[in-house]
Specification:
Layout lengths: L9 H14 L30 H5 L1 H7 L2 H30 L6 H6 L13 H12 L14 H29 L2 H4 L3 E3 L3 E6 L2 E10 L5 E15 L5 E9 L9 E2 L5 E6 L11 H4 L4 E11 L5 E9 L3 E3 L1 E3 L3 E4 L2 E4 L7 E3 L7 H6 L2 H39 L7 E5 L5 E5 L1
Amino acid sequence: MLARKSIIPEEYVLARIAAENLRKPRIRDRPRKARFIAKNGACNLAHKNIREQGRFLQDIFTTLVDLKWRHTLVIFTMSFLCSWLLFAMMWWLVAFAHGDMDPSTESTTNSTKWTPCVTCVRSFTSAFLFSIEVQVTIGFGGRMMTEECPLAITVLILQNIVGLIINAVMLGCIFMKTAQAHRRAETLIFSRQAVIAVRNGKLCFMFRVGDLRKSMIISASVRIQVVRKTTTPEGEVIPIHQVDIPVDNPIESNNIFLVAPLIICHIIDKRSPLYDISAADLVLQDLELIVILEGVVETTGITTQARTSYIAEEILWGHRFVPIVTEEEGVYAVDYSKFGNTVKVAAPRCSARELDEKPSILIQTLQKSELSHQNSLRKRNSMRRNNSIRRSNSMRRTNPSLIVPKVQFITPEGSQSASET
């Protein structure tokens, strides 16, 4: 069967398809690199094929604390129910072995000739209720122990010990889950972007960190690590190669006084992994800078840790953070609305190595920025003058009262001359 010919000519269809492809160019984004540390501080790592699962049960308390809330509550509920059912079965067996379940003993019990181990325990339901009363220390007064059975006294002691252990583990896990260190780290914030600019004649990598709470972090310290994929001279590929880089701190120790937001600075020198990276090379780099803030919570004394990371796309070259701490009526005020705001500054686009080899690059950059600043000021002033002149002209045109009338002067020769005053 022959194919049906189209009404529209083939040449026109091909031309239209080509035009649509030209109008809508296909932009292939670079595949996004997986982050080792997310912006909120969570580790982007999945553990697979763990064969020795029994190691988690050896540290059962930590396993319970690490579980999610719904799993923890289910485990605690099932542990209580299982303990109540287990001891209910034991109380029922004690009563059955002693003969308390025999209907013939009910008449003798009323005549005070028969003494049961536990009064009013005639079925498994009553044994289950008595087990709950014993473990939760609820006494309704209907069911009680007697001195008839030493085995029942042993079961009572054993159930009390098991109940105390379950309560202690439950309270400890709930306290640890509510007072975990990462809860305090939620109020430790980092700037969304980092910057590279010149400070004291050196290229520096900088970011801002702050604490939203009034309670301080004692002995706070900041560490920076660079994570990148490297290959050794022997051909070994290290997918996560961590390198510590120093932090510029005027104090000899690495501790900081985090009472107000601070700008943490790393000088890009010969020891830095960023020493050979320029502004053009930064976009192509496959690296991640991890920032770790550690300290002791002042109110609880628990050590906390806040983390974040910066990839190449989140580092702004030639920017600087705006100041956010001002003095208002004798009090230092912090404007957190400008926490991550940056402003462009003059910075050489070359690497730190080239800047050390040719210090004149920095001087030329500063001179060019000064000239451009002066030119922008001149343009701004000229625009202001032009605007003021235009406004005055427009006001004269719109307001006829401002127009000065012409006055005629008569000279001694009798000629008249017109002039404006």
